[in-house]
Structure formats: structure tokens, C-alpha cells
């Protein structure tokens, strides 16, 4: 697995984990004023990266994730979720955690069975990727923040085509 070197842009610092030319890859952008606050960068394969910042007396962990698509094998998916589990287990409970990314799943409009982690502001039907995300979220006592706040209809989807909205 190759890696693009960290690059300083005009106003941000980017940390990247992935292949130079290939599939996957994740990154985290940090404002120039906060870059000195970054005390650790963890590159975990080509689908996960985590940074640790100390800001105003608080330790913040930011994770960027890119889950395998529905058509990929179960082994690839299992390795991704195990890697994310390891990252989260490695963060002390006294530190704050923020996870973002593309989880290639739909949690659906109904929070049924996942009321403690799933808000009521989502759409569509739950699929296998969504169930994996919900199980992970519940296992670590997290919440899917994007489902907890109302949004305009055009902000409910991240991809539109003639065939589908996801």
C-alpha cells in the first residue's frame, strides 16, 4: 500500500491514508491554525485514518472511514469493521470521539431496534451496510448524529442519479 505524503495546502493541512494510484483512500483536513494541535496521526490501511488533537484542554479524536461497497466480499467488510473497532477501542473513554465517512449503507427511516443510536430524521429502507453501521454504533454507545436533526429533502441524500438516490 502506497501513501501520498502529507501536503500543506493554502489554508489547511491534509493527512491521507491510501494508495497513490488506486481505489479507496481517506483523508482528514485540518485548519492551519489547528495543525499544531495534532499530536498523533494513525493510518490504518487504506480505508481508515485517525488523528488526535489537543484543543483547549480537551483531547479530540477524529476518524475518517470508507466502508466497503455492497458488492465486495464479506472478508473485506469484516476487515474494515475489525479495523474500525480497533481504532475506537484504542481511544481512552476520557477523550472525545468523532467519526465521519462513507459507510456505504442505509440506516433507513425507521429507528426500530436501534432507538438509542438512530434518530427519526432519515429516509428509505435499511440495508446490510446500514445494519452493520447501526450495530457498530450501538456496540460503542455512539449515536448517528446525522439522523438526529431535521434536514431539507435535498439534504437527505448524498448521491442522485436517474436510477436512485443514496
TrEMBL record:
InterPro entries tied to this protein: Endo/exonu/phosph_ase_sf, Swc5/CFDP1/2
PANTHER family assigned: BUCENTAUR RELATED (PTHR23227), CRANIOFACIAL DEVELOPMENT PROTEIN 2-LIKE (PTHR23227:SF67)
Name this polypeptide is given: Craniofacial development protein 2-like
N-terminal signal peptide: none
Domain of life: Eukaryota
Cited Gene3D superfamilies: Endonuclease/exonuclease/phosphatase (3.60.10.10)
